[in-house]
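Reference record:
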Amino acid sequence: MKRTALRPIALTGAAVLALGLTACSTDSPETGDAGNGGADVQEMTVGVAMPTETSERWIADGEAVESQLEAAGYDVDLQFAGDDISTQQQQIEQMITNGADILIVASIDGTALASQLEAASDRGIPVIAYDRLINGTEAVDFYVTFDNYEVGVQQAQSLLRGLGYLDESYQDTGLEDEKIIEVFAGSPDDNNTGFFYGGAMDTLEPFLEDGRLTIGSGQRTLDQVATLRWDQATAQRRMEDLLTSTYSGGSGQLDGVLSPYDGISRGIITALQNAGYGDSIESGLPVVSGQDSEIASVKMIADGVQFASIFKDTRKLATQAVEAASSYAEAQEPEANDTETYDNGVKVVPSYLLESDIVVADNIDSLLVETGYWTESEVASGLAD
């Protein structure tokens, strides 16, 4: 996949502080590992482990983290694992062997890195979990992410708005029409999946209880609706199977689909279009939600094909990761705004949570174009420049 253009964002907080201390201090900087205080960031390496380059979102994350770390004075070892767990394990092991001082890790499988991160801990290397919590180990020091339960709430709210049950302010319209939906969830080995699913289902539950919504297939448990590796083709096949088993191959009533990710959304939409549900929402295509505001889906939203996507500004997430790394480099604890929610089975990991936004057709410009995340030409073409 072509690497997307980096979307710049100003460095703030600890990242700027670290750079300023390096440039302006009149004292001789100490050297040593990140956990032992005062190391010169210009002599430090941060290992950045990203899960895949098959998603434009993760490419943008990797580039944003790398760029901001380099601007703060660090050497950076950025690796993408191609959605292969053993590859990511080997990459992290190599980062440790090569002398990384700090690790930033977006895991493929949040339960598969315990031995690698314990090796990092043994060497005094702080570990920052990036967007996906790492489970089953004491050796994760900090977590930067979005409020993932709230992201799930927003996914459901966007679906309910598209179906007419919520207005533009996401308040109940009082619509009593009975509508039929299906539910998709993310990969079962991604810790975020449970939070997305929980927030979404809690939001849909009152409408399911009062009968305004029905899940046509009856499939609603997480193991029934999960999509391994968030894979678009897997989602398309499941949607095709549902259409065959529950919707007479495409002639049955289906009003909406809860989707947790834009790639999954595109697979669902392809199946629906191929089954004859229409090319757009206006022509009968069911309302489909999404997440990540990938450019192909943003164009589909602009064109009235996909209804919504959740925008998680990964530039801000990268900045927060850099701030956490800079805190460790200065022998300080990163600022957390949540110390209760993210229990990885061994410890509650101190976390910094960011806010997300619901993107629909009428706020693409204000949320994505005016902020420089995508350009008008990219939205028009559906391709990153």
User: Anything to note?
Assistant: The mean pLDDT is 90. Residues 29 and 151 are 42 Å apart (CA to CA). The first strand starts at residue 45 and ends at 50.
